[in-house]
Request: fold
Amino acid sequence: MALSDLLILGRDSDLGSERGVSCTGALPEASDPQLIERAKSARAKLGSRALILGHHYQRDEVIAFADITGDSFKLAQAAANNPDSEFVIFCGVHFMAESADILTAPHQKVILPDLAAGCSMADMATANQVAECWNALEKIGVASKTIPVTYMNSSAAIKSFTGENGGTICTSSNAMKAMSWAFEQGEKILFLPDQHLGRNTAVLSLGLSLEDCVLWNPWKPMGGLTKEEILAAKVFLWRGHCSVHGRFSLDNVNTVRKMIPGVNVLVHPECQHEVVSNADVVGSTEMIIRTIDGASPGSAWAIGTELNLVQRLAKAHPDKTIAFLDKTVCYCSTMNRIDLPHLVWAMESLVASHIVNQITVEPEIARYSKMALERMLAL
Ligand code: 13P
Ligand code: SF4
Reply:
């Protein structure tokens, strides 16, 4: 393979932005030459009434209008700590906006500019499936010793289950703290819904063995496990994963090491265990940014996370070699649903006192979810 087969970003290459959404109906046309001016004007009119939060995987055109950018943990903190803005426009995905609604004050309204911005991983654990799993653990007599630890990437209903059953939420930046806390409260952990973050944290950060962790398959009776396996397990890993991070492979790591001598492999903990075990640095999106910001000029990095972020890092650091860990392009299609036309539409609607795409979590679900989220913020 030639060096040109790797996706080296920055300086001479720019993949441009891919538009997956056609803007119809009330949305401005993406080709509207006035779009940026319209965005600036609506933003100015909203002033301090609106706070725009932008996850690091958002497109550049959206990040340009974010008041605060961050990983899921930082954005949850931002939502909890800014009670003065009437509107929180969340440029991210649905579960993040739900968490923001739970953490903001009652007078604040959380807006998700495109309701189709979901997360395929969050959809891999439904409330019914989790209730069935818990019933099975109760029948075998281990539920009372099991603490649920639920990744932020989950529906409010699953967060509520977690709060009600004495568990906590975690993000990729505090999963180790959350799991350590859970082992102080009980003997076993039910980790939902990302098997990779759960396994990587249990094995690589807490020193458990791979055998201590068993996979709970929600499509099989008793998770596809025997009673003996359930009794012996320390961590039940829900069978969910991220389709974006699941693409990175050990082969990618080995190839990049051959192609770029001295390269540092930097990955998100949602990657598969064999990728994370063979990486040099592992961390949340915020940590990935901090690592590249602090890296020496001339150093080389192959990054395994969503492509909008990797491209932005490459542009911001022309003094470093920054490659995308996979050979092929890999955006998070749901994060990419939020584009400038949707943001302009949401802001102009709010300026016209028309509230669109408000995310509200039912009070009963919000009550226990908040408990679980606040346990996380206090960790
Ligand atoms: P971070 O919390 O690291 O930003 O990750 C969120 C996410 O969805 C990664 O796929
Ligand atoms: Fe969900 Fe993966 Fe997209 Fe993150 S990158 S929002 S986990 S689908």
Residues 56, 71-73, 153, 171-172, 242, 268, 270, 284-285 surround 1,3-dihydroxyacetonephosphate (ligand 1) (CB under 6 Å).
